Prior knowledge:
The complex is a heterodimer of chains A (312) and B (249). Chain A is an alpha/beta fold and 312 residues long. Chain A has helices at residues 40-47, 69-75, 91-101, 106-119, 135-147, 165-182, 193-199, 217-222, 266-279, 294-302, and strands at 2-11, 14-24, 29-33, 55-60, 63-64, 76-79, 153-157, 185-190, 202-207, 210-215, 227-233, 249-255, 258-263, 284-290.
Amino acid sequence: MIDAQGLYKQFGTVQAVIDLELQVPEGSVYALLGPNGAGKSTTINMLTTLLRPDRGTIVIAGHDAVRNPDAVRRVIGVTFQDLVLDRDLSGREALDFYGRLYGLDAATRTQRTKELLTLVELNDAADRLTGTYSGGMRRRLELARCLMMQPRILFLDEPTQGLDPQHRAMIWDYLRMLQQQHGMTMLITTHAMDEAEILAQQVGIIDHGRMVASGTPAELIGQFGSDMVRITANYPADYQPSWLQAEWVRNWAIQNSELRVGVDHGSRRIATILDGLRADGLLVSDMNMTRPSLGDVFLQTTGRALRDEVKS
Amino acid sequence: MINATYAIWLRHMRKFTRNREELGGLLIQPILWVALFGVGMGRMLPGQSNYLSFMLPGILALTALGGAAGGGMMFLDERLRGILREYMVAPIPRLSILLGHMCATVSKAFFQIIIVVIVGVLAGAQLGGSVVAWLGTLIALICFTLGFAGIALGVAARSKSIMGYHGMIFLFNLPLLFASNALYPLDNAPVWMQWLAKANPATWFIDVARSSTQSTDMSANLLNLGLLIGFAVAGTWLALRRFQAVTAN
């Protein structure tokens, strides 16, 4: 449904997106993860015809996005990270205007507006100016807006950014419902690992314009083994624990005085790790063991924790 | 194309009629020009039998210019706030986005113009001229506003900030009026200024508009009308070109 090959975009001397490949099958959800400035927005702008790639091809629902952008625009719905709602229009008017822009007749506009306002539970606030809406209400209205033209593919840039947990869960419910009941294909970008794990069948991690890892969440997490051991100690700057070159170690990294080791069986290996550290003369101050998450995958591939990147 | 232009125009009109501050500002501005500048200057120039009748077209031009600058501002605001992207992902011609904004700009300017004329007449301006002269003035006004709305939108398509936009726009507001026959007759002006004024769309418009307040012959203004139509097309073309340059990559 979405097929991008060899996407490349340069701004001046800055390479924003480098030879990016991305495929999203019909009816599935793809989550694009990455720190700020990694090239997520540039990618989504190219996929949604707002930006022309320097090189590479994009095919959306069988239409070439560069040669035939209007055909692509007719089948996609897009929400932006910065909300584009007009504060001087009511929720109902915003939807009605959007339908009008696409040339929908009045009866269809009225009917769809009513349905969508019910779907996102904004009936009570429909005739208030959107300037008076809370962040969660605006995100919901944005979602309704991009569904107005009954698109086959949704592009959602940070659909839950800045929302409280309750509203995030609400948006997730809508998105899952859209996928399950309407077979909607979706590409979302997000900062939140839990969001990607809950919603997406495919995940791509992008950093410095390149796709550094991609696959199903299970595949990506699987490379860390079944458990993740984290140990805080006074590691020297260039510490290289050669004894971690063992067959039971899937992966390891040190960041912020924390050693993370992905292992096949945590409770069996933890003593070995502690012995190794003690033999190197290190003082362990804290330790714990968890299931590895997409956050660990992200840290491993980009060298950065995602939460460091979240704008306040 | 027409549908999308209409949708964007309608959206702006709905916002406009709802925004009391904007409405009030647009109403008061021309009233101040007529009541303060027109009446005050009239006393300083005893040679002119009716200064207000003379300068009313100039105020119309200024109002249209202010409207065009405001139209560019509206476009810039939508661009900076990201609302423009909502139009950009829609399967509509890019030209319709521009035309929607330009039509809204002309409509607002037209609303102001009517106020100016009413206030002007109440303050003592005399309106002569035939129906043909009025019709010509109306066309001239629309072309004049469209041309400058195009320039303003062209600037707004590139401006990085509201401050930068205002800096650019100031260049073609008051100075343009001073370099025309809007506020004073050019008979005694130096030759270079007369030439400057002749190449100034404000002068073309004012000449046409004077035929409706001072009963000059309309047929003398066909050239001016033609120039203004060309100006409107050129303004639209400029805006579209700048707009496409920004959105193409």
